[in-house]
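PROTEIN DATA CARD
Card holder: Flavodoxin
Chain length: 157
Origin: Clostridium rhizosphaerae
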Amino acid sequence: MNNTLIVYYSLFQNTANLALEIAVQTDGSLRELIPDKNYSFDYNTAVKEVRNQIARGFCPKLISGNEPIDDYETIFIGSPNWFKTLAPPVMSFLTKHDFTGKTIIPFCTHGGGGFGQIENDIARECSKSNILPGIAVNGTASPEEVTSWLKAIGYSQ
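Structure generated from the sequence above:
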């Protein structure tokens, strides 16, 4: 078994597409985080729901994706940039696991806001981990961008 896990949450598939490309290039296991209650597919309604959850520090229950991580040494953690931070389902995942001694590699998709506070939020929750530089993609990434990033951070299987 490859000891690399790619965990992500995606509402509109951009983060899912980036996670899939990372999985293809690393031969890692892919794990989608699915909250017990879906967000609205209407953008404006979803924005209100998310803003409210983030303001309250709400971490939704996950019905999928929260399985143990003990067998993995390297974990890529992906989220869309929502109001400069992680999507609440990703925060749920982070608060449920012990990342001590693991290598954590963040990634996100955004519409112009870059990482915002995502790297800092992951570093706070994974303080006993080795955190490598992540990738923030506006929209979608080409396979070449992912390859260059993985090479730049010294990722090897």
